Amino acid sequence: MNLLTEQIQTVDNFIWQPFAMPLVLVVVGGLITLATGFVQIRRFPTAVRLALQGAITRDSNANDGTGTITQFQALSTALASTVGNGNIGGVATAILIGGPGAIFWMWVTAAVGMATKYAEAVLGVHYRVTRETGELASGPMYYIAQGIPNKLIGHILSYLFAFFGACAALFGTGNMAQSNTIARTFAEAARTVVGVDVPLWFPGILITTAVG
């Protein structure tokens, strides 16, 4: 486990060099913001209306257009993968490490990051494919493979993205952080209340059984 942690830390230090990745995120988001004419501000009311369409009442138009889920279901799916690790744990960690000033920079990156997210969504819709079952499949893997002119490089990068995305979901931003927090809380409570040392793998088995 220590070896895996050291390897992850090495990669993390390489990617998140001081100001490198945050600067890239802000610059790219700023350029997309200018190119789209501040779409995150101009179209915000429209985005809210479409995203919440059919969420409270049964709206017959909630599933208009080509798709297998409603706009609100798509929004809920997107939020399910971000709320928690990023919006709660990530914010607390940023304030702990960088102080209250980190909040300002989170606002800045969020403001321009909405334009980046918009661009990702547009690419996802443009390059999505329809499977034989009629279901739609989309995502970065597809628009990387189809959008890059060099097909060989595009396919290689798409497979790499899918692989590392799966690793991130499994070992990082997926369910491991939540499972680790629950297991440690369970073990600490057992040690404090009952006086029993519970190995961390035991709560892990309980969580696995509970969620199927």
Task: Report the structural category.
Answer: mainly alpha
Q: Estimate nothing, just give the exact number of structural domains.
A: 2
Unreliable residue runs: none
Q: How many strands, what sense, and barrel or not for the largest sheet?
A: 2 strands, antiparallel
- Give the topology string: H per helix, E per strand: HHHHHHHEEHHHH
- Biggest β-sheet: strands ordered side by side in the sheet: 1-2
Mean pLDDT: 82
Overall geometry: globular
- Number of E strands: 2
GO molecular function, one term: amino acid:sodium symporter activity
Keywords: Cell membrane, Membrane, Transmembrane, Transmembrane helix, Transport
InterPro entries: Na/Ala_symport (IPR001463)
Membrane topology: Multi-pass membrane protein
Describe it for me?
- The protein contains eleven helices and two strands, in the order αααααααββαααα.
- The protein has helices spanning 2-15, 20-35, 39-42, 44-51, 71-80, 85-98, 101-126, 140-147, 151-171, 176-194, 201-211, and strands at residues 129-130, 136-137.
- Strands 1-2 form a two-stranded antiparallel sheet.
- Helix 2 packs across helix 7 (101-126) and helix 10 packs across helix 11 (201-211).
- The mean pLDDT is 82.
